C-alpha cells in the first residue's frame, strides 16, 4: 500500500540463505507496492546485542549500583541513549509494520535479534507499566515473525516431538511484541528449507510474495492464551 513504512529486522549471516532471499523479495514486493522499506541487517551492521553501560551517554542516574532497566529508562527520557539505539528506535517509531526475519535457534530467535529487542525496546519507548499489551507504547503498529526451522512441519505439531509451533511463539509474539502494544499478524514459517528441493524452496519464496501482496488486508491474530494453546 503506497505510503506505508516497513522495517525489516533481519538476522542471518549468509545473504544467499533462504532467509536472505525472503528478506530481499520482501523488500522488492513491498517497494513495488509503494511502501518505504528499511532493513536493519543485524550481522552486516555488527549490531551489539549486549546491554551495557555503553548504552547510556553521560552520567548515570545511580552510579552506586548499575541497574540497566532503570538507567536505560532514565537515559531514554533524557535523550541520553547511545546513537545506535536512537537510530533503531527512530526506525521503529516510523514503521507501520515491523517484520522480523530469522532462522529459529533453540526454539527462539538468534541472540543478536534478542539483543536488538533487549536494547531497543526499553521502558519509556516500547512500554511503561501499566501501558502494556493493549495499551503498550507501540500500539497501532503491526509485527510479523517470518522464520525458518531446522525440522519439518510434523516435528512442530501436536503429535510431534517439539510440540505445536504455536507454543514456541508465545514468549516472542505475546511476551515481547504484544506486551509492547504491537498487533501481531500470523507468523510466516518456512519449515526445514535445508532439506527441501530447489523447487520446494522456490515455492516458499513464491508463497511469501503472494502473501505480501495482500498483507495490508490481514487481520491480526487474537494474541491470547486461547489462540496459542487451543
From TrEMBL:
Entry EC number(s): 1.10.5.1
A cellular-component GO term for this protein: cytosol
Query: What is this enzyme's catalytic activity, as reactions?
Result: 1-(beta-D-ribofuranosyl)-1,4-dihydronicotinamide + a quinone + H(+) = beta-nicotinamide D-riboside + a quinol
* Keywords from the UniProt entry: Cytoplasm, FAD, Flavoprotein, Metal-binding, Oxidoreductase, Phosphoprotein, Zinc
* Cofactor needs: FAD; Zn(2+)
Record field: transmembrane? none
List, for all copies, the residue spans of the domain called Flavodoxin-like fold: 4-212
As for subcellular location, the record says: Cytoplasm
One GO term in the molecular function aspect is: dihydronicotinamide riboside quinone reductase activity
**Enzyme class (EC, first level):** oxidoreductase
Q: Does the keyword Zinc belong to this entry?
A: yes
InterPro entries with a match to the protein in the record: Flavodoxin_fold, Flavoprotein-like_sf, NAD(P)H_dehydrogenase_qn
* UniProt cross-references to SUPFAM superfamilies, sorted A to Z: Flavoproteins
Is S-adenosyl-L-methionine set as a keyword in this record? no
Function, in words: The enzyme apparently serves as a quinone reductase in connection with conjugation reactions of hydroquinones involved in detoxification pathways as well as in biosynthetic processes such as the vitamin K-dependent gamma-carboxylation of glutamate residues in prothrombin synthesis.
Under the heading PANTHER family, the entry gives: NAD P H OXIDOREDUCTASE-RELATED, RIBOSYLDIHYDRONICOTINAMIDE DEHYDROGENASE [QUINONE]
Which family does the record assign?
A: Belongs to the NAD(P)H dehydrogenase (quinone) family.
Q: How does it assemble?
A: Homodimer.
Recorded protein name is Ribosyldihydronicotinamide dehydrogenase [quinone]
- Per the UniProt record, the source organism is Eublepharis macularius (Leopard gecko)
Amino acid at each position: 500500500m503506497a505510503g506505508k513504512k516497513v522495517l525489516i529486522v533481519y538476522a542471518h549471516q549468509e545473504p544467499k540463505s533462504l532467509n536472505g532471499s525472503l528478506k530481499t523479495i520482501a523488500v522488492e514486493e513491498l517497494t513495488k507496492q509503494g511502501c518505504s522499506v528499511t532493513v536493519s541487517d543485524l550481522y552486516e551492521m555488527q549490531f551489539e546485542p549486549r546491554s551495557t553501560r555503553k548504552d547510556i551517554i553521560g552520567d548515570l542516574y545511580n552510579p552506586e549500583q548499575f541497574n540497566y532497566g532503570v538507567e536505560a529508562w532514565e537515559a531514554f527520557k533524557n535523550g541520553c541513549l547511545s546513537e545506535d539505539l536512537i537510530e533503531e528506535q527512530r526506525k521503529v517509531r516510523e514503521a507501520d509494520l515491523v517484520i522480523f526475519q530469522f532462522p529459529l535457534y533453540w526454539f527462539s530467535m538468534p541472540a543478536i535479534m534478542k539483543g536488538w529487542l533487549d536494547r531497543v525496546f526499553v521502558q519509556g519507548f516500547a512500554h511503561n507499566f501499566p501501558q502494556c499489551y493493549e495499551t503498550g507504547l507501540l500500539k497501532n503498529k503491526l509485527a510479523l515473525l517470518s522464520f525458518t526451522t531446522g525440522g519439518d512441519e510434523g516435528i512442530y505439531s501436536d503429535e510431534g516431538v517439539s510440540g505445536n509451533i504455536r507454543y514456541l511463539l508465545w514468549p516472542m509474539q505475546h511476551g515481547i511484541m504484544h506486551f509492547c502494544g504491537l498487533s501481531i499478524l500470523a507468523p510466516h514459517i518456512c519449515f526445514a528449507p535445508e532439506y527441501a528441493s530447489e523447487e520446494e524452496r522456490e515455492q516458499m519464496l513464491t508463497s511469501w510474495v503472494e502473501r505480501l501482496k495482500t498483507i495490508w488486508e490481514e487481520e491480526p491474530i487474537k494474541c491470547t492464551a486461547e489462540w496459542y494453546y487451543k
